[in-house]
Design a protein that fits this description.
Shape: globular
Structural class: mainly alpha
Number of helices: 9
Helix content: over 70%
Largest sheet: 2 strands, antiparallel
Radius of gyration: 20 Å
Length: about 250
């Protein structure tokens, strides 16, 4: 096993570290969108703490999984076969997480399109329950994304120190970006629907991956980037019309 000084002096180790950091940050976008959307449903004073709890738990889970790397490797071993397809524990976790994500995103889209009436007392109770529910849902999805993240890391490098540094840097980037992303989503309601569409697509990809249908991640993120670009143009168009209307009114 290579020592840390040997890894520091190895250019290949640095290349692997940079590549893995980029990959972990990209994979963390999915998790961060989920955390931002559902913590924004909480009272303003509790959103930051919920985001910190969710992202902190993501770091703890990833480091804990790295500490049990031998167990992680066994997660990819087939445990049973059905419909001529071998399923591992990782596959089952991805399928369950994908189904949960599809169900949750569909429910949120339905609530946005057809919101139900609320009175004050019910809304207050929903907020109290919502904090616990939001943290619980974040923990469940953190587990799914953490396992996917660590399995990806194991496939890219055999060196544990490189994995640990990449995970810590990626989660640190998530923590830094979580506040601005959440505020941006809150200030642009149309972005919420786009983000829910992303989560719906990510859920379907997780289910497909669990059934052995591997969709290249580049296609997924290219579609997300294109959709985000179109929405950015729509936002610029709306802002220009609003400014023009204010100038004409003034």
């Amino acid at each position: 096993m290579d020592t840390i000084p040997a890894l520091i002096a190895d250019p290949n180790a640095w290349a692997a570290l940079v590549t893995l950091i980029v990959m972990e940050v990209v994979l963390g976008i999915d998790n961060l969108i989920f955390i931002s959307i559902f913590t924004n449903k909480l009272p303003p004073e509790r959103r930051a703490s919920a985001r910190r709890i969710g992202i902190g738990l993501a770091l703890i889970m990833r480091l804990g999984l790295l500490a049990t790397i031998a167990w992680i490797m066994r997660l990819t071993e087939p445990v049973f076969t059905a419909f001529d397809n071998a399923f591992s524990i990782r596959d089952l976790i991805l399928i369950a997480g994908g189904l949960f994500l599809v169900w949750k995103a569909t429910r949120e889209i339905h609530n946005s399109v057809d919101p139900g009436p609320e009175d004050g007392d019910i809304a207050a109770n929903a907020v109290t329950i919502g904090f616990t529910a939001a943290v619980t849902q974040i923990i469940l999805l953190d587990l799914v994304f953490s396992i996917d993240s660590i399995v990806t890391a194991v496939g890219m490098t055999p060196h544990i120190p490189i994995m640990v540094v990449a995970v810590v840097v990626a989660v640190g980037a998530m923590l830094f970006a979580s506040g601005p992303l959440a505020r941006f989503i809150e200030g642009n309601p149309t972005v919420v629907m786009l983000a829910l569409g992303f989560l719906l697509m990510i859920g379907m990809i997780l289910i497909a991956d669990g059934f052995g249908v591997h969709v290249p991640k580049g296609y997924i993120y290219a579609a997300m980037a294109f959709s985000a670009l179109v929405e950015s143009l729509n936002m610029m168009s709306r802002r220009a019309r609003r400014v023009r209307a204010e100038q004409e009114a003034g």
